[in-house]
Amino acid sequence: MRNMTPRTVHRIPHATGKQTRHCRIIGCNRHTKNGKPYCVNHVESNPYVSHVLSVISDRKHEEEIVARRGWTAVNIDGSIAQEILQFLRVNGARSLKRLSRDLRRDSKLQAMYCVALTKAGLINVSKNKRGGLILRVA
Q1: pTM, whole model, 2 decimals?
Q2: Domains of the chain: which residue ranges?
Q3: Is 71-137 a domain of CATH 1.10.260.40?
């Protein structure tokens, strides 16, 4: 039988460690988790989060304008139109109903975007055997 002598284990502290951090917002003394710079009440102060919230707001604003004014208000270079084109490029032809469901967008609003993209020559529309509209990237 071998001679079993206990080994000494040396713990090396992690560089990040479990430091208690406080929110960077002046006057807020709430603790943050995992070394994050902002507490849950001020997470929107993070530049990335601010950018994402701005993009979401811009998209909602664009959808409201298109819903009010119709397909002529669609921004072909906007994020929503580009999202539709990219989705069709990646996933192939879709019916209008299926595309609306896949992108989680109201079918009337989706139809307005598709009319604008068709008029711009970016997508082609054909009919399936049952008479439904099929959308493809041009």
Answers
A1: 0.70
A2: 18-69, 71-137
A3: no
**Three-state SS string across the chain, please?**
CCCCCCCCCCCCCCCCCCCCEECCCCCCCCEECCCCCCCHHHHHHCHHHHHHHHHHHHHHHHHHHHHHHCHHHCCCCCHHHHHHHHHHHHHCCEEHHHHHHHHCCCHHHHHHHHHHHHHCCCEEEEECCCCCEEEEEC
* Residue 77 pLDDT > 70: yes
| pLDDT for 12 | 47
